[in-house]
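Researcher: Next entry in the queue.
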Amino acid sequence: MKVVALEPHGFCAGVAHALRLALDALNARRDSDAPLYCLHELVHNALVVSDLELRGMKFVDSLADVPEESTVLFSAHGVSPAVREEAVRRRLAVVDATCPVVARVHREARDFVARGLPVVIVGNPAHAEAVGLAGETPHPHFFGGELPPKGARVGVVSQTTMNADDVAAAVARLKADYAVETSAEVCHATKERQDAVKAFAGDAVLVLGSPNSSNTKRLAEIAAARGLRAWRAGTLDDVRAIDFAGVETLGVTSGASTPESFFRAVLSFLQSR
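Model: Structure for this entry, 273 residues:
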């Protein structure tokens, strides 16, 4: 079986930025007994989260779980204004690890609201990034759900880890019924990985990343939609359990929060078979 590493792989800039802030905060508290908290997973990768836990980071699902006057990281996915206000009320020291691309989308949503435009979000309403984005508007509308009256002028934003083709299709459909203002698109790192899978000429794709990673899931879906055999794996044991029988050329890609060390370990394992 021929194994091809699809480019790019490893951490995207947003994940690298968040991890750098997390490690700096941990190092700054090395001689302190006070724990460092992170609201939700810093990034959606179990290997990264496990490593940070071993270094002393505590992950919580609510600011209510963070003692007053403690230090808390906001994850790369961003948070709503209500969460930021709660942190101020509870006198928490905040390390904001929001991805700069996500922060830009938040600014766009706030601009639409300030101009009186209804905001339509293209994304998964349950995803942490989309939840934070929805908090920027008093009446968020999700594409696929209840929308403003037809004919209205709307501002459209998107979760940055969606399928780029799906976002483009959603915007095109909205433009048929609304006067749309938008720069909605997935982030560059996400699109590059998706384009690499679309261009791959082999017969199967292995996507490395955790099950709750949106961009990882999209990569597997794109491969399957092209008629390729597709698997997702979050650990080396997951990879060992896959039956690659019949695969002549396997492309290996990874989600934007998958460590390069894991990617290289998988390549080494596959190439030694």
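Model: The first strand starts at residue 2 and ends at 5.
Researcher: Noted, moving on.
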